[in-house]
Amino acid sequence: MINIPKGTKDMLPAEAHLWQYVEDVAKITAEGYGFREIRTPVFERTELFARGVGDTTDIVNKEMYTFLDKGNRSITLRPEGTAGVARAFLENGLQSGALPFKAYYLISAYRYERPQAGRLREFHQFGAELYGAADPSADAEAISLASSLLQNLGLEHVELRINSIGCPACRARYQTALREFFLPHIDKMCEDCKVRVQKNPMRMLDCKEEGCKQFTLHAPKIVDYLCDDCRNHYERTKALLTAAKVKFTEDPFIVRGLDYYTRTVFEFVSDAAGAQGTVLGGGRYDGLLEQLGGSHTPAVGFAAGIERLLLAMQAEGVEFPAPTGTDCYLAGMDDVSREKAFLLAEELRRAGLCCETDLMGRSLKAQFKYADKIGARFVAVIGENELQEGVVQLKNMRTSSSVRVKFEELAQAVLGEEE
Fold it and tell me: Same domain for 156 and 88?
């Protein structure tokens, strides 16, 4: 038997309705803010992620699934969604359309990392992107959308943490201060941080190694190095969130794991068991489209891991809607009545009902057992007498009551009971 690759997971029919619920809530919430769906390829040219995500990130350095295709081109399975949307925005000339451009996506993504609860090598994301608006109100709207999504999913034990990492000029001063702070301790830090201290010391603030955390906790704070424009942008964003009654906590050590972020960064962190901390994160990335060859275009957005959202929801005991069941099972007692059951099932399906009928040649008793297993609300039995009279014996599986219903009135009878 061939087993599933490590770091991947099957989504079985019994749990599909959980995923569908989260995806439906995400779509409805985003569309309420004027966002529309965008779909991009599951693989892109490797250069897109190297330039967009950043060559100092763990994603680019360690985690991407990269290969040469038959044309000897370097191709990478997408490790996140933003870079692909940015490429689509530029390539399809959307910058000349109505701005701000608002789009959301539901994707699978791929990173080669150690599998754990809520973190797989193939994982799924809901994300939202807003291009063209530099005003702090765009930051506040993206955060408000994210907050509304989590509320609509029933999550209560989630905390919003925000920070500003400034513009390139702010960060240059801050990078220098971090380097000066960390260098005296660098021999006691992990091998990755020994590289990061020269290439991008802000990445050190995101290090998960316990030995490094004791130093990062006392590192300089970016907010002390913000220029006047970045400071005003941050203060205005916070003021808008406060006015909109979106609660938040300032966290000076949020830097996010991707190089394209500027100014506002934020995370929603769950304290529910098994949720793996951050369930949604994002921020502003005003330089991304320029890095990819476009003109300067301000942008802000976020992404949430579907697996992590589900873990957090289950840990909090959120009630999911019950899966849609079978409305009516049509049981035939012999070959002739099975054929009629087959045709009646087709009629009921055209009327919008979920119907099944026997495909296995089972006995009537076995058909009832199957109908019970699949949670059928009704079983319509057809035998020789029913065929002659043009009726079915319609049994309500919840109340065990039965009525005789004409073939042509069966759909209405089931629909009427459903109402």
Answer: yes
